[in-house]
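re: the backbone from monday

yeah here it is again, tokenized this time
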């Protein structure tokens, strides 16, 4: 339990997770139509919501990533990216289950996915699920570690006030 509360563990996990989400948001912010094609290929959300997701999701990834890196609202950012990674796990796993090859869109463009075979896409989807589990684990470390540190600090403060 003490490793999770360790300042350096939380800081490194925050930097890695935040950096990954900032990096992942970059190409999506620059080219929303390309990202919209990736979202469409999942065949999971209504067509009316695809453009909204393609525009706003990358900005959420960027803001949450920056928040993790600089430490503002770190717990909320960790919770947000953890839930988002969990959703990505479900979406990718569902498409793997139904035999629908697509690219994740995390770090790739739609155009890059066009050159991939179905087998390559399935292999990449499995790797992305594993990566997203890693993101969920990092988010849990940041969220629970920050929470435990805050509770410990509040406990010490209340002990000083009662003396």
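seq for it, each position gets an aa:
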């Amino acid at each position: 339990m003490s490793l999770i509360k360790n300042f350096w563990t939380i800081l490194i996990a925050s930097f890695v997770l935040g950096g990954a989400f900032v990096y992942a948001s970059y190409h999506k912010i620059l080219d929303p139509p390309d990202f919209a094609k990736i979202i469409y290929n999942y065949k999971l959300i209504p067509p009316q919501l695809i453009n909204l997701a393609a525009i706003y999701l990358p900005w959420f990834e960027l803001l949450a990533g920056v928040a993790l890196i600089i430490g503002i609202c770190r717990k909320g950012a960790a919770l947000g990216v953890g839930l988002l990674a969990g959703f990505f796990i479900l979406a990718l796993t569902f498409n793997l289950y139904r035999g629908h090859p697509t690219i994740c869109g995390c770090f790739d463009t739609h155009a890059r996915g066009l050159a991939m075979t179905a087998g390559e896409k399935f292999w990449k989807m499995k790797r992305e699920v594993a990566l997203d589990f890693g993101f969920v684990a990092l988010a849990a470390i940041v969220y629970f570690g920050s929470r435990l540190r805050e509770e410990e600090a509040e406990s010490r403060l209340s002990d000083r006030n009662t003396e």
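Helices lie at 2-5, 7-30, 32-42, 47-70, 74-97, 110-114, 118-162. The chain has a mean pLDDT of 91.
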